[in-house]
Specification:
The chain is an alpha+beta fold and 446 residues long. It has three domains: 160 residues, no CATH class; 158 residues, L,D-transpeptidase catalytic domain-like; 119 residues, Nuclear Transport Factor 2, Chain: A (Roll). It has 14 helices and 19 strands. The strands form five sheets. Strands 2-16-17-18-19-15 form a six-stranded mixed sheet, covered by helices on one side. A five-stranded mixed sheet has the order 5-4-3-13-7. It is elongated. About 15% of the residues have low confidence.
């Protein structure tokens, strides 16, 4: 029985230990971290402490500070390991180790190269014959590798138990253009990718479809420079699709490059290249939460699933360090405010009142070859020769940037007509909130 208590501690510490334990009052039954308790001699007293630490490992996952959670009706990711891992740990918590082993073997039949499941199986088998005091005891694996698997278990189970509320929308998806069928939102803090559908039957309101575990850069997010091993934060778009046949095995079943650095990144001095959504090597089911050179990495199974939803040149990929959620009402309010602001810019352009038109632009405004002063001078010269101007904007998309400053990315088809020039173009603008007002800080072709 004592051996079982050790396996319970070793595996339950995945959930009750580390950062989660600090956030859970349940886990604070001892002043010492669980890992330190496990390394003490197995006296009767310490065995009692071990049992107390294991009381409710799953509680430690759901007890982290968060908004109230509601499970969504259709969750594609339930075909992934998270629900199976949750069942395995529930059986361990209840001291039903034979059931836990059977569930682990079922998981391995589906994913033979799943390292976390192999490690759990090894510990469950070893617990039958001897006392074990650490997670990964059978393999005597390097501490760093075990820590990686522990981190994966924590973020997978947290993602499984903490679903966004049914009545909430990522703040960034303010408006999708009609032909954008889906949008991707990545939360690097939770190692999670959310897939949303453009529900045109409900006014283009984003509708949750699925969520997936992801790997990010080895050194986290907020990429600044080439080779810094960080994942960028911002609003991006899928730029191409690369099949497995064109890739090294490292990238798995395919890759989808995104347009990092975008124009806002360039203005902020961020550098680097080659940021992709891609899969995992053929001998690996999943990589640890922080393991890439900056790319967003999914299992091959998950990449193949979302690949059906990706549109080259259209699908937005919004990467945030921690997703902000809005109620439907607040989302609609922000969306309407920005749409009115964009329409006011269009109307002031049509008015040919150049000073009124230029009030929509930041003094920090830049195009690819002009600053604000140069842009203003050109507009005054052009408008002097106009008798009338008509501007139409179609296929409008508005995405809020997840960075520290309040920025939105606006893309649309612009139909410009005047007495001496007609022009059609796809335009992209970056709007920045300055002194409580939205101002254009960049615009150019998309």
């Amino acid at each position: 029985m004592l051996g079982r208590k050790f396996i319970l501690l070793g595996l339950a510490s995945l959930l009750a230990g580390g950062a989660l334990a600090k956030q859970s009052e349940t886990a604070k039954t001892s002043q010492e971290p669980a890992s330190k308790v496990a390394n003490k001699p197995a006296t009767k007293k310490t065995a009692t402490i071990k049992a107390a630490v294991v009381v409710a490992p799953l509680v430690a996952v759901v007890a982290v500070k968060a908004k109230p959670i509601a499970h969504l009706p259709t969750i594609v990711s339930d075909s992934n390991p998270e629900p199976q891992l949750a069942k395995i740990f529930k059986e361990i918590e209840a001291n039903r180790l034979s059931n836990a082993l059977q569930l682990t073997e079922n998981l391995l039949r589906q994913h033979p190269n799943y390292r976390l499941a192999n490690l759990i199986k090894g510990d469950l088998l070893l617990a039958r014959t001897q006392q074990i005091q650490t997670f990964g005891a059978l393999l005597n694996a390097p501490t760093e590798k075990v820590a990686d698997l522990r981190a994966e278990a924590i973020v997978r189970l947290r993602g499984y138990h903490e679903k966004p509320e049914i009545s909430s929308i990522p703040r960034y998806l303010l408006q999708m253009q009609p032909d954008q069928r889906f949008a991707i939102v990545v939360d690097t803090k939770r190692s999670r990718l959310y897939l949303y559908e453009n529900d045109r039957a409900n006014g283009g309101r984003p509708r949750f479809v699925a969520d997936y575990y992801i790997t990010q850069g080895k050194l986290g997010s907020e990429k600044l420079a080439e080779g810094d091993k960080k994942t960028p934060i911002g609003v991006y778009h899928v730029t191409s699709s690369m099949p497995k046949s064109q890739l090294a095995d490292l990238y798995g079943s395919g890759a989808f490059p995104i347009n990092y650095p975008n124009e806002w990144d360039k203005q902020q001095g961020r550098k680097g290249s080659g940021i992709w959504l891609h899969g995992t090597p053929s001998d690996t089911f999943a990589r640890p939460p922080r393991a890439s050179e900056g790319c967003v990495v999914l299992t091959n199974q998950d990449l193949d699933s979302i690949a059906k939803s990706l549109q080259v040149g259209l699908t937005p990929v919004i990467i945030s360090s921690s997703v902000e959620w809005l109620s439907f009402d607040d989302w609609a309010k922000e969306r309407n405010e920005l749409n009115k602001t964009i329409d006011a810019w269009r109307g002031d352009w049509e008015s040919r009142d150049t000073d009124r038109f230029l009030k929509h632009y930041s003094k920090r405004f830049k195009t690819s070859d002009q600053n604000f002063e140069q842009f203003a001078t050109q507009k005054k010269q052009v408008n002097a020769g106009k008798e009338w101007i008509k501007v139409k904007t179609d296929n409008l998309s508005v995405f809020r940037n997840p960075g520290k400053e309040e920025v939105v990315v606006v893309t649309f088809d612009q139909d410009y007509r005047s007495n001496n020039l007609n022009n059609l173009m796809k335009k992209r603008q970056y709007w920045l909130r300055e002194d409580g007002k939205w101002k254009i800080i960049y615009e150019g072709t998309a």
